[in-house]
Amino acid sequence: RRELTAYGHGLAGKTEIVALNKSAAIPKAALAKKRAALEKACGHKVFVISGVSGEGVDDVLRAIAKELAKHRAQKRAPNVARAEWSP
User: Fold this and answer.
1) Please, how many CA atoms are within 13 Å of residue 54, restricted to the half-sphere of its CB?
2) Whose CA is closest to 23, among 52, 62, 58?
3) What are phi and psi of 54, to 5 degrees?
């Protein structure tokens, strides 16, 4: 997060989707602890994925698609409201 803030360009204010990768290589008990610690640190849901097996990747892609759709709808909303109310 410090890197994002230091980089600037508004990155620190963007929506964040966090994924814990390489889950296939982490024992289940340790994975649960790592996920819980990461969720506590970032303050929201953490997706558990495995690039090797593909596990969890579809869930992350759906979350990304949902956030993009929400962002696009918010961007369009002011234009739609203006079009509806313009004389």
Assistant:
1) 1
2) 52
3) 85, 0
pLDDT in tens, the chain (87 residues): 788 889 999 888 888 999 999 999 999 999 999 999 999 999 999 999 999 999 999 999 999 999 999 989 988 876 655 555 444
Q: Spell out a b/e string for 44-59, using b for 16 or more CB atoms within 10 Å of the CB, else e.
A: eebbbbbeeeeebeee
Torsion of CA 55, 57, 63, 65, to 10 degrees: -150
d(CA 59, CA 56): 5
Q: What is the 3-state secondary structure (H, E, C) of 41-76?
A: HHCCCEEECCCCCCCCHHHHHHHHHHHHHHHHHHHH
Which DSSP category does 16 fall into?
-
* Residue whose pair of structure tokens reads 């004389």 in the numeric block: 87
CA atoms of 31 and 52, how far apart (whole Å): 16
